[in-house]
Amino acid sequence: MSLSWNELIWQLLIALLLGGTLAYLFWKQRKEAKHALEHRQKTAKEEGPAATRQMQLAAYERLILLVDRIALPNLVSRLNEPGLSSRDMQMVLVHNLKQEFEYNVTQQIYVAHEAWDAVRNLKDQNIMIISQIASYLPPEASGQDLNRAILEMLAQNPKASLHNVVADVLSFEARKLMQ
Fold it and tell me: Distance (Å, rounded) from C-alpha 84 to C-alpha 121?
């Protein structure tokens, strides 16, 4: 079975036409993909500062929530477990405080250095207060005794807790971003 020259030429033309069409479609698809990529990159550059500002504001929101959660009065009321010894309650309070802090540690990337330092100092101060008060209690003291002593100390000396000051620092920094 041999093909005539006419048939061979037609098959060659069809093959070239198909090959050319496929090459054209491939080239067009790559050109559109390149154009779409350039458009996305341009859009990302234009939206960059606004997106960054949104992430920073979200970080300040999370840190304000953290400050509220690790404020000693809130920590004591949330974790109040009757039946624990003073030592066990101390461990529960400190462990929870550290856990809350560690959960939010990545937020430091988005906030001012001073703001992050204030949050870290609050955590450290609260751990120190809990530990100092626990060390003054007798060995047989209950967790309720520790909680009561912490709340009484804060009531007698409201300036001992920095959580309001730290929340104000975070709010101030967030407001600066919104201007």
Answer: 28
Contact assessment for residue 106 and residue 52, using Cβ atoms and an 8 Å cutoff: no
Give, in order, the Cα–Cα distances in Å from 153 to each of 16, 38, 130, 156. Answer: 90, 61, 11, 5
How far is residue 123's CA from residue 127's CA, in Å, rounded to a whole number? 6
The one-letter amino acid code at 5 reads: W
- Distance of alpha carbon 67 from alpha carbon 57, whole angstroms: 15
Q: pLDDT tens across 79-88, in order?
A: 998 999 999 9
SS3 state of residue 137: coil
Contact 101, 66 (CB under 8 A): yes
Taking the alpha carbons at both ends of the chain, their separation in whole angstroms is 84
Instruction: With beta carbons less than 8 A apart as the criterion, state whether 144 and 82 touch.
Output: yes
What the block records as the tokens of 76 is: 């004591």
Per-residue pLDDT tens digits for 7-66: 767 777 777 777 777 777 778 777 777 787 677 666 656 666 777 888 889 999 999 999
CA 115 to chain centre: 15
pTM of the full predicted structure? 0.72
Interacting residues of 120 by C-beta distance below 8 A, sequence separation 6+: 101
Which amino acid does the sequence have at 51?
A
